[in-house]
Amino acid sequence: MSQVERDVTVVVPFRDVQNFFPEFLDSVAVQTAFARAQVILVDNGSTDRSVAIAEEFAARHPNVDVVSQPEGRAGDARNMGMDMAVTPYIVFWDADDTVPERSLEVLRNTIVKTRATVVVGREKHVPRPVKAPWHKYFGKSVKTVGSVVDIPDLIHSASCWNKMFDLDLLRSQGIRFGTGTAFEDAYVSIPALLLSERIALVDAPVYEYRRRGDGTSVMDTIWDLPQNYADQLLMLEYLAGMRQGLTPYQQETLERFLIRSMQGFLVRAPQIFGEADCRQLFERCRALYWGITSEQIARSTNDTRHRIPYLALHFADFDLFYRPASVLGPVHGREGDLYVDYPGTSWGLPLTKVSSVPAQIEGMTGGQDGTVVLHGRFSVNGIPDQLLAGLELQVWFERSGRTLPAVNHGQAQDGPAQRGAVFTVTVDPGQFPAGSFPVRLVVCTRGRDVSRPCSVSPALNHQAPVGGSRGSARITADGGTAQLVVESAPH
């Protein structure tokens, strides 16, 4: 096939991937559309056999070129490959992953048929699958929309390897990868999605992303390395510079990405940085998120724990950001929901609403005089564990007419992996009718008391009943909810 007939460029940056490169290149060579592809392998500083592997592959295939960009990172290498491309369409793949054999054909046929400028395919993560918010948009046939605002969660698909781009879109809009930085994909994928006037989704597996798990991938250490925080913030500030040229709906979609992409970094920053460095990050983030509504932040974050940092940014409360336990008060109840007690205005209500109160019955022992003691653990999402000891607790046994006081023992001390606080409640089976009663933890507040169902530790599934002469009790699970099963003593 002549150069003129080739219409897709495959750009592959690589560096020290000799253990994965042959498998990846094999998956490229068996592509059903391989003959119509221009493949550009870009070395960016390999010190192992990766260059030799690439050159051996190129020697067998006339449509493969090997070039070098030794001073840069993956973004620099991808930009170099993009500058060399002479085809109308382009994909960017990584040398330590693999590609299903029809990927290039499926993406190419879809972009030609739909006249889209971005095509997004389904990706597979190995060894563990990952469920992403944009996966819900895929169907059994190709889905085409005029703008990413029609499927706004697609904005979170920031990686480039599951996409095919119209090269003219990238060049005409000046879209290029970030250089000398991590998270370089987002510099291309996010602007392309925002500026594209036709996007196609194809429900076919077009990429297999390998999570190495050996500490050498960015995702293996994403929360641990201070440089990742700097690179992530730099990327978001770059994207925020697009706001002025976007429509209001596009701006709102971009804000979803700006918020969601930083939430994990913000909640962990106080454990990574000293106070001075954390304050610098805090001030830059204040400027980045200023003017975004609390409703938008609540929609774009996982839970209360991830929303508290944005509350701190809005109110310029660095202590709330860096040492929240020194600022927050006890929770309060309102209309069946719990709220983090923070002395702000009504602006912050969507961010202070507690998203979950995980509570679990973990054990059951015999008490005095034939009683039974239930041992449990609980937490309140958004509340530091050290503040949990100040909460008054009860346990409500539905349908029994019994609500009993619980002893809150405070923060768990049984190992760093154990979170939350522990509680106990003493039950006299003789005071209950025979039957099964759902167990709910009640948090008593200065507003209204709020209850949440308790789950059951798997260790309790096969525990024998506990009790004495006045009856016995055991804990079972019904649909994930703890049930106190009381059996009356025979008379």
In brief:
29% of the residues lie in helices and 27% in strands. By secondary structure, it is α+β, with helices and mostly antiparallel strands. Strands 3-2-1-4-7-5-8-6 form an eight-stranded mixed sheet, sandwiched between helices. Strands 13, 14, 17, 18, 20, 21 and 22 form a seven-stranded antiparallel sheet that branches.
Description:
The mean pLDDT is about 95. The protein has 13 helices and 22 strands. It folds into three domains: about 5-220, Spore Coat Polysaccharide Biosynthesis Protein SpsA, Chain A; about 220-325; about 360-485, Immunoglobulin-like (Sandwich), CATH 2.60.40. Strands 3-2-1-4-7-5-8-6 form an eight-stranded mixed β-sheet, sandwiched between helices. Strands 13, 14, 17, 18, 20, 21 and 22 form a seven-stranded antiparallel β-sheet that branches. A five-stranded mixed β-sheet has the order 15-16-12-11-19, with no helix packed on it. Helix 7 (about 225-240) packs parallel to helix 9 (about 275-290), helix 8 packs antiparallel against helix 9 (about 275-290) and helix 8 (about 250-270) packs across helix 10 (about 295-300). With about 500 residues, the chain is an alpha+beta fold. Its EC number is 2.4.-.-.
Secondary structure class reads alpha+beta
Distance between the termini: 92 Å
- Number of helices in the DSSP assignment: 13
Number of domains: 3
- Taking all Cα atoms into account, the compactness measure Rg is 28 Å
Beta-strand portion reads 25-35%
**In order across it, which strands form the biggest sheet?**
3-2-1-4-7-5-8-6
CATH architecture of the largest domain: Alpha-Beta Complex
* Helicity level: 25-40%
CATH T-level topology of the largest domain = Spore Coat Polysaccharide Biosynthesis Protein SpsA, Chain A
Report low-confidence residues grouped into runs of 5 or more: none
For CATH, the homologous superfamily of the largest domain is named as Spore Coat Polysaccharide Biosynthesis Protein SpsA, Chain A
Which oligomeric state applies?
A: single chain
- CATH domain class name of the largest domain: Alpha Beta
Judging from the principal axes of the Cα atoms, what is the shape?
Answer: elongated
Strand count: 22
Keywords: Glycosyltransferase, Transferase
Organism: Streptomyces lusitanus
Protein name: Glycosyltransferase
InterPro entries: Glyco_trans_2-like (IPR001173), Nucleotide-diphossugar_trans (IPR029044)
